[in-house]
Design goal:
alpha+beta, five-stranded mixed sheet, globular
């Protein structure tokens, strides 16, 4: 049975946790990691979130994936496949690490772009961030032990927010 879903107030330690993880990953991956991005709600100052830091390791090419998997294994990560999202590879969290989700995507990946655009929207638009926080609190109560249901229920909000960005007129 999975742990209940808890959405908690923003913790200013989340960026520090990300930075610690980023440094460890970069030291292991070297030039294989083009960028390491802090994504998800913990990457948005002031936003409540599940206390799990999300990281996207951006690699130059899918051709590097086998080497990345091998390097991450040395840190205690296990490759879990794409979880149904093509081009985004998931990894287990080592037992000795803070709670986090690690994904690896090649540059130019659609899911990576969506993560970054949504994160940046929430950072730039407090009204959208507040609406998202309220939705997550409601969904955490409704889907307390159903992580899949919780995630799927957020999809409509995320899609609408991403769509609003692509439909905005350019600034004059």
């Amino acid at each position: 049975m999975s742990r209940p879903i808890d959405v908690v107030p923003y913790d200013p330690k989340w960026p520090e946790i990300f930075e610690t993880l980023r440094r460890r990953l970069k030291a292991q991956l070297g030039d294989l990691a083009w960028r390491i991005e802090h994504v998800g709600s913990t990457a948005v100052p002031g936003l409540s979130a599940k206390p799990i830091v999300d990281l996207d390791v951006v690699i130059h090419s899918r051709d590097d994936l086998a080497e990345v998997i091998t390097a991450l294994r040395r840190l205690g990560y296990a490759h879990e496949g794409d979880g149904g999202i093509q081009g985004r590879e998931m990894f287990t969290t080592p037992a000795d690490a803070p709670a986090h989700h690690l994904y690896v995507c090649a540059t130019g990946n659609r899911e990576l772009a969506r993560h970054l655009v949504f994160r940046d929207l929430l950072r730039a638009d407090p009204m959208t961030a507040r609406a998202y926080a309220a939705l997550k609190a409601d969904l955490a109560a409704r889907f307390r032990s159903d992580r899949r249901g919780y995630s799927e229920a957020k999809t409509a909000f995320i899609e609408q927010a991403l769509c609003s960005i692509t439909n905005r007129a350019p600034e004059q």
